Every structure is written in C-alpha cells, then in structure tokens.
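Give me the fold.
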Amino acid sequence: MTGDHDDVRRLLGAYVLGGLDDADRRAVEEHLPGCEPCRSDLARSAPLPALLRRLPVEDALRVDEPLGTGPRSVSAAVLPGLLGEVDRDRHRHRRRTVMRTVLVAATVAALATAGITSLRNTQPSAVRFALTASAGASAEGDVELVAKPWGTALTVHVSGLPAEGPFSLEVGGSTRQTAEQAATWGATPSGSAELVGASSLPPGEISTISVLGPDGEVLAHR
C-alpha cells in the first residue's frame, strides 16, 4: 500500500488533533473505511485530545524548548511513530505546532500508563451496540466500545447523515450529569462516516451514546 495510503497515513496525527483543512479531512475520511492499518493507527491515536485537555497550561508552554533535551524526551521508539503522522510537505506551517502537541501527549501517556508497547499487545474485548435513528431522522449505524486504561475507544459507523455538518458524538455516564464529547466530524458526500472517538468513561459507565447534528439535534442514539 503506497501512494494515497502513505499520504493519508501521514495525515492521521493532524486529523486526530483537528489540524487539517476540509480537503485533507475528506481525503482521510474517504480512505479509512477501506484501510484496516490506517484505522488501527487512528484508534491508537484517539486518546491524544483527551490527554491534552488534562495537561496544565504551564507544562504545555515548557515544551517550546528545543526537542530532545532534558528528562521530557520520549523514547525514540515512540515519537517517530507519532510524529510521522504529520504531513511534512503539505502542512509545513503547522509542523512545529503539531510536533509539540504530539510530544506533550506522548509524555503524558508515558507517565500515565505502563507503556505503549504493552497496550498494543493487548487484545481487549469489544462490545458493539446499534445506533437507532431518532424521530424524523434517517441516520443509523453501530458503535464498538473497547476498554482502555484511560477510558474507552469508540469506533463508529453511521449512514444517512444530513448533507450539512458538523456532527458530533456524545456519551453520557451513569454517574455524571453532563455528557462528554467523544468525536466531531464534517459532512461527507455519501452521508456516511466511519470514525474513532475517545471517552474518559469506562465502557461499564457509559449509559447513552448519541450522534448530534449541527444544531445539537439527536440524529441517532443508543
């Protein structure tokens, strides 16, 4: 798998962090349904936004120092795989920002888990649920929940979406009063989308899963 596959694979990191323009985002979303390796890479990158939200601002600012110095340096076996997702040729002006962001996320992940290698070698069981269209909507699909040390990875397949987005995936917990946003994405020509989201809630605490339209209306739910 070369050519378009390699181009899309380099965009995955920026896709997770919301750093792509509309054309590149559509290219990634149209490529993912037919590419298992890219979907796996995207699933491994899914926790990055949630990890970044937990990082204190002062810690993030210190990452502006030269890379590769001091105790914050991350193993060479980890960083190349994360930084390689950034499209060096087409997004040169974003490169430095994304590199810093991924470095912060990788450092937090290294401190919060026993190691990325051991996580990749585990095969957690998945739980799948159907997404049912709400009244007056035609969206439907399914969602797969996989337990992670940091919460839950959610793989979503949905079709019948309106022509205009954006859309979002929200999960509600049995012990929380407010819902948690797990993913956002834009409209697609086919009205279908496959994406990976992330939640800090364990699978057992997730009581509701909803696909929301641009005005916050519930299009499909579990």
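The first strand starts at residue 126 and ends at 133.
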